[in-house]
Amino acid sequence: MQRGREKESDLPRNRKERALFVARPARRHAAGPGKHRYVRHFARNSRSGLTLIELSIVIMVIGILLGLIFGTIAGITQVMGEVGPASRQKYQTLQALAVMRASLNQTLHSANLSRLVFVGTSQGNGDQKRDVLTFAAVNSGAEEVGLPAVREISYYLRDADGHFPCPGQGGGCVLMRREDQTVDDEPGEGGAHYVLLEDVESLEFQYTLNGIDWRPDWNNADNNRIPRIVRIRMRVKIGERVQQFDTMARPGLYIR
After folding, report:
1. Number of domains comprising the chain
2. Nearest-angstrom CA–CA distance, 64 and 235
3. Is residue 90 part of a domain?
4. Is residue 244 part of a domain?
5. Where in the sequence is the domain holding 237, given as residue range(s)?
6. Is residue 153 domain-resident?
7. N or C: which end of the chain has fewer CB within 10 A?
């Protein structure tokens, strides 16, 4: 009881003393010197960084990821090396067909101008067709560059040594485009010759007026007309196989 009375007597008796009592920290809650030493020791040991084990784990993970990445790149490179040439050859074949189709769509014909020819000659047979086609076409954009508005174009096959027609058996022919900026009295002669495609097995043109009756050759001097549809068929060696490609052109956009 005496201890309890002493504790009660130690309590503040008015508001001012109570405020001072609350603001003044009690000695029994103060931290001792041992606790301060522990805090300083913990602060020194809590510096940022990786341990040797953690660093080893990071290096191992990076090595695994790099191995996977380089393995994938090597696989893609190998696949591209195997299919790349075949894909390029197929793309070039489609591009050559597009060039022929576009130029045929620009065919120019006039019944009063004999120089504007359209002559398709059938050569070879079976899978060894060596057809030749010569025609006059509008030269789009020629005025801007100072060239004639009409040019003469030919398509044919020759071998790698320049022999015409291509005598090669089982491929080895080159698809050529002849372009003459002057339409003269000697169709099929002169002009510049360009390589469009290599490894061509066969080149065939077919002509029709109605889409039903197809002819293997054509000469506008015989009937003073040009075909309404031209079928282009080409056999090309793609990789280890020979593939056939077909497309159609519609001459007659420019008829006078």
Report:
1. 1
2. 48
3. yes
4. yes
5. 86-255
6. yes
7. N
pLDDT, residue 4, reads 47
Please give the model's pTM, rounded to 2 decimal places: 0.66
Q: Quick one: pLDDT at residue 76?
A: 61
**pLDDT for the residue 219:** 92
Q: Is residue 48 part of a domain?
A: no
Distance of alpha carbon 120 from alpha carbon 108, whole angstroms: 15
Residues of the chain under the 50 pLDDT cut: 1-7, 26, 29-31, 42
